Structure formats: structure tokens, C-alpha cells
Amino acid sequence: MTDFQKYIQRYLDQIPSGNWLNELQISADKTIGIYSNLTEEQSTFAYAEGKWTLKGLLLHLSDTERVFQYRILAFARGEKNNLPGFDENEYADQSFANERTLESLLEEYKLVRKSSQILLETLTPSVLHNTGIANGHEITVETIGKLVVGHNYHHLNIIEERYLSKLGWM
Q: What CATH number was assigned to the domain covering residues 3-166?
């Protein structure tokens, strides 16, 4: 197993059931549930110096999902060019998430997820096996779809373990 395969496997292992398309909605519902119960003040909490706030983490989920959506679309449509990677920390630094309202960030997350659901649910099963190169690594459309879910669950676990539990919100 390559380092890249090990890296993505940690996200794929987060998916609690074999029905990853169903988990797309379940992970969204859990994320929305958590963020809907936060106050504006709570959403600016970071569990340690230099870590993202809850607002920043929510925008990170939306940004990453958009990158994954583009890769899904490109490879489903037969793109042969190597798609670039992205630096999640650079994106976060340039996002100005903490200057936005929690409500606006949550609305954006909901819309991005709805867009992912429509994209993934309307692909024909055969294109799920299409492959492309992203950040120098070959990957299938289906694996990227699963990464949307696993990445979300990964961060839900971090939110529960490092944010909510520290503040007694769980």
C-alpha cells in the first residue's frame, strides 16, 4: 500500500456503513445538528493556539468538498489532465471564516452538500469507476465520493473529541 493509499484510507475507514451515498446525508445531518446548536461565540472557539475555530473548520469542510466535487465532475466527464492539489491551511488562512456569521457558513455548507448529493446521485454507475490524476495520484470517482463522506466524519470526530468535549457541550 502506498503512502497516498494509507492517507486516504484513514478517511475511508471513518465511513460507518457500506452505503456511502446514504452516509452523505447522515454526515451532513450530524454536522448541521452540531452547528445549529452553537452560539456565534461558541463557533469562534479553537481548542488550541494555531488551530482552526469551529467556523474555520466548517468552511474547511465546504472548501474541501468543492475541490472534491470538481474532481468528481472532471473525472466523470473523462478529464485526462492532472488536477492540482490544494493546501488546506492556505485556503483556511485566506477564508476569513471568522469574519462571517455562523448562519452564513452553515447555509453555505448545506448548499455545497446538496450540490454534492445531486452530482453523485445522478452519475451513472459506470462512471464511478472512471479514474483520473489528482495531485499526482490516480483515483476513482467513487473513491473521491467516499472521501467527501469520510472527510466529513473525520472532522465530526475531531469536533466531538477536541472542541465539544473540552467545553462540556457533549
A: 1.20.120.450
